[in-house]
Amino acid sequence: MAHVLDPLPYACDALEPVLDARTLEIHHDKHHAAYVANLNKALEAHPALAHLSLAELISDLSRVPEGIRATVRNNGGGHFAHNLYWRTMKKGGGGEPTGDLAKAIASAFGSFGDFKAKLTQAAVGQFGSGWAWLFLEDGQLRIAATPGHDCPEMNGGTSMLVVDVWEHAYYLKYQNRRADYVEAWWSLVDWGRVAEGYRTAAR
Ligand code: MN
Known about the structure:
With 203 residues, the chain is mainly alpha-helical. The chain has helices at residues 21-43, 54-59, 66-87, 99-109, 112-125, 171-174, 178-185, 191-202; strands at 130-137, 140-147, 158-164.
């Protein structure tokens, strides 16, 4: 089964004015689509990997033949990270989490404000293209930035929130002002979805 590019879970202009429609359209229909196409192309000649889900594939890259490993890491990772990025934004998002996730964040990072500052710092401080994540690893909530399309899943983690800090995610509207984009991105976070991801990961 080939890997599939799901449609965006909202219209291209749904996240205006934080993320403009043109950026979302190019980001999803061109950039994300290309990662899926490249992933499928790399896997074409390797039917033994066809039964693996995307998460399974990127969680253990050692079973991917060396000749396509970097391609699968970059494009499979890109596919996985974008899926989470789209899924955890919504119009009218933002605010703060509630329930178990709120407690876990406060316990891991001190307070929601400390958590927000730390994830913002990871995102803004990532040198070059990459991502900043909230994920569970060894039973602990953690924050990390990764280069390229690397995902916590590649090191045994389970991610629940991510912000894309590739320039293609913000350049049309924010140009070089990544910090402004990240600050605005917080107003889109769908904490209900993030909490679902946390519950699944913590199980
Ligand atoms: Mn992207």
